[in-house]
Amino acid sequence: MRLHVADHPLITHKLTVLRDKRTTSPVFRQLTEELVTLLAYEATRNVRVSEITIHTPVTETTGVKISEPRPIVVPILRAGLGMLDGMVKLLPTAEVGFLGMVRNEETLEPTTYAERLPADLSDRQCFVLDPMLATGGSLGMAIEFLFDRGAQDVTAICLLGAPEGVAAIEKQVDGRDVTLVLGAMDERLNERGYIVPGLGDAGDRLYGTV
Ligand code: URA
Predict the structure, then answer these.
(1) What CATH number is associated with residue 202?
(2) Complex ipTM, two decimals?
(3) First-to-last CA distance in the chain?
(4) Residues β-bridged to residue 72
(5) Which residue's CA is the closest to the ligand 1 atom numbered 7?
(6) Around Cβ 118, how many Cβ atoms within 10 Å?
(7) Does the beta carbon of 202 lie inside 6 Å of ligand 1?
(8) Is 7 or 123 the better-scoring residue by pLDDT?
């Protein structure tokens, strides 16, 4: 597994505002979008491209375009949805699939309640969006889901990660092609499975408590 933790003052600045409990939902949504676009730049470093020939007004030259089959972006509902706009801004030709997952707040175990993905993901590069890598339960389940359908490689973009979650994913992927891109690596999980210092419940911060 490859792990990339962002190290850029602009990302740290935006994350600091995001963490602040006084930040309102509209600002939280805007910052999430901006952060994902910045993280997507790193996450797409290995996106597959094919060489093409084009004509500039001056001459013929070669360039590249994103290969077929197109990459697929998979936000994990609900909170991952807040990351989608920031991702497709940078990768507008990607297809989008959805995975709905919820974690039981007592056992912290995830269950899948919705799925809208192609049946065959053979050869597809998949980009999973999940803002909080806490225990790794839902992200791990999503990664298995994608590999079971034939995905070639999976890159997960998370705003924050806990060491416990990163270790869980690393153990689970066991040599398969998985990249984790984090905005920051936080200290730990608390007894309720929240990331510390974290930002609270990402879904609630994005959309209000429901
Ligand atoms: N999910 C969240 O939204 N926040 C956390 O801190 C952990 C999981």
Answers:
(1) 3.40.50.2020
(2) 0.96
(3) 35
(4) 95, 126
(5) 194
(6) 13
(7) yes
(8) 7
